Amino acid sequence: MLEIEKVSVRYSSDEWALEKIDCSLEEATITGIIGPNGAGKSTLLKAILNILPYSGKIRMKREPTKKWLKKIAYVEQKSAIDFTFPITVKECVSLGTYPEVGLFKRLRKKDWEKTMQALEIVKMERFSNRQISELSGGQFQRVLLARCLVQNSEVILLDEPFVGIDAISEQIIMQTLEQLKQAGKMILIVHHDLSKVEQYFDQLILLNRRLIAAGPTKSVFQENSLRQAYGENIFIKGGSET
C-alpha cells in the first residue's frame, strides 16, 4: 500500500503546489491522477520519488518511499526528454537494468535477453537498432515503458504517457499496463483526457492543489467532484477539460 499523509509542496513561501494531500492506494491497481493544468499532478509524482522537497509523509508498505526508489520506475513527460541523444532503442531500454547491475558495468547476456523480451512485449523489437531520434512519439513512449519492464519495479509512475501518441501505441501501452497490474504492480498515471478515465483506471486521485476526491473511479468520477476541480465550464463527453 502507498500512503500519502498531509503532503504539501510549496512553489514559494506564499504559493502552494500541493496542500495537505491525504490518500492511500492499494497494490495491483491502475490509478489515474487527474485535475486541471497547474493542479499539482506531476508534482505529486515527484514528491513520491523524493525529487521535490515536501512536508508530510509518503510511505510504501509502511516504509519511507526513499527506501523503495530502486523499486519505483518513472516515465516523465516526453517533452522533458532529449530525443537527440545518440542512443539506440535497445540501449535506451537496457538502462532499466542499471539499478540491479550498476552503472558503468558491462551488461551480461541475460540482461540483453531481458531487454529484447521487453521490446517484444511492447512490439518494438524490430526497431531495436534504431536511434531513438528516428521514432514517432508513440513508438518512443513504448520504448520508455519497455525500460520499466526491464527494471522489474513494484511501482510504475507515468506522467502524461498518452499525449501526442497514435491510437495503436496507446492500446499497446494500456494492454501492457493491464498485464503488469495482473502481476501485482501498482501503476500511477497523470492523465488529462477525461473521456478515457472510466475505461482506463481502477482508482482516481482528483486534484486542484488540494485533494478533491480519491478512491474507486466510479465514486470519484462524478459531476460534483469534477466541477470542484475544473470549474463550472467543464465538458466531459467530448474529452475536453475546458
Automatic annotation (TrEMBL):
Sequence ranges assigned to domain ABC transporter in this UniProt record: 2-234
Highest taxon, organism lineage: Bacteria
High-level lineage: Bacteria, Bacillati, Bacillota, Bacilli, Bacillales
UniProt keyword annotations, A-Z: ATP-binding, Nucleotide-binding, Transport
Gene3D superfamilies (UniProt xref): P-loop containing nucleotide triphosphate hydrolases (3.40.50.300)
Name this polypeptide is given: Manganese ABC transporter ATP-binding protein
Species, as recorded: Listeria kieliensis
Entry-linked Pfam families: ABC_tran
Homology family: Belongs to the ABC transporter superfamily.
Entries under SUPFAM superfamilies matching the protein: P-loop containing nucleoside triphosphate hydrolases (SSF52540)
GO function term, MF aspect, one: ATP hydrolysis activity
InterPro entries associated with the record: AAA+_ATPase, ABC_transporter-like_ATP-bd, ABC_transporter-like_CS, Metal_Ion_Import_ABC, P-loop_NTPase
